[in-house]
Amino acid sequence: MPVQIIMTEGLASKVEAQKAHAEISQVFLDLHQISNNSFMLPNIIGEVVFVEEGLTFSGKATSSIAIVELRVPSFTFGTQQQKDEFVQKATDIILRATSGKLSKEHVWVNAVYAVDGLWGIAGKAYSNEELGQAIQTAAAI
């Protein structure tokens, strides 16, 4: 499940950004109780993208920002409580990573849901049902 962090350059060091990505990935795994799932763990992937200062915007004006975006199957985050907790924890992680250079009003968190049957891993297009079964039957590592 791709985890992408997009932020204005200069808000966090490369090391802090790497740490934030790992922590946000762990929050996702923990919320779904799949932290040691041998199918899921290698499929938590992603990137941190630094955007040149002056090329990030809020309210039509240049502004320092951070965006956390997940691309996940449509059955992910089955409860509002999971959504609330993920957004709060991801925001807190970004705020720590940026060491006070960013206010929480300039952190956005969202999820983009994949179309059922179009979640591709290792050349196989999984349906939601197949993906759920693969996760449930995977042995913990």
UniProtKB/TrEMBL annotation:
This is 4-oxalocrotonate tautomerase. The lineage of its organism: Bacteria, Pseudomonadati, Pseudomonadota, Gammaproteobacteria, Cellvibrionales.
